[in-house]
Structure of Acyltransferase:
Amino acid sequence: QNVVLFAFRGTGSSILSALQDLPSGLWPCTSKMEKHLQVISVMQWVISFLALGAACTALLIYIFCTDCWLIAAIYIAWLIFDWNTPKQGGRRSSWVRNWTVWTYFRDYFPVRLIKTHDLLPSRNYIFGYHPHGIFCFGGFCNFGTEATGFSKKFPGIKPSLATLAGNFRFPILRDYLMSGGICPVNRNSIDYLLSQNGTGNAVIIVVGGAAESLQCTPGLNSVTLKNRKGFVRLALRKGADLVPVYSFGENDAYKQVIFNEGTVWRSLQKKLQKMLGFAPCLFFGSSWGIVPFSKPITTIVGEPITVPKIEDASEEAVDLYHAMYIKSLQCLFDKYKTRFGLKESDILHIH
């Protein structure tokens, strides 16, 4: 995405930096200019996530039908050769993760990352991220970029945000996602990171997934977790510690039209969810419908739960650590909720 928008002069953020460095007299209001840059930064990510893959696929097909077909043929050959890279640790770029554009992205909401405990580089971790929201802005900003200083707060820990494997089938989009350390949320990819990539790895899984996104709405503190045990079973198999993560304000980025269970529209959403792997939501934001509301998102990384390595864990063991995880997440929410705009009477609904 930024490859398209911001890479004209050798740095992904050169245009934004150049605009910022222009004499202040050229702009009627510096703060207004900052806000415009923040909106652009967020919009480029939203539009890229929604349309970059399809647009680049269409462009590749078009080029293949022109006199420049050789360029498309070379890229397709490279794509075939590089097909398994996302499942083998990806190809992260510290340069892309540190683009200036992400600081504007961070400041739009703003997004904050709060550390509660140290993480040992000698261990591997599975972060359970809650809630999903519509676009998981907090998850992306904190773990797919260095805008909130993850590497400084957790030295020796390398985060990998897991997202839909289907995104890595699209040209250009796959490379853009990998550059941020984003990986497919499938067994092969996560197994590689937790067993063949040394230690100090943290795989961030948005546990509620598509089902949770269908329920998100401003002011609602609800997570889909009761029957989600796969990530616990994976942690036991790899001996990776579990870390609960909660983002206050993630659900406030958009308003959503929520269809009642049993209606035709809800049934359609669920069918498309099974077919596509994601849930099509009817949402709207502050302007043009697609710009999110500028609401604070604060991500709290909780205390790690030490998990033993058990290759073939029993259901009792899975249930035990799943219950421990739920209790830890609940305590994390209760401890910090009043600091970030919620009332003492607000509770976390776990479905």
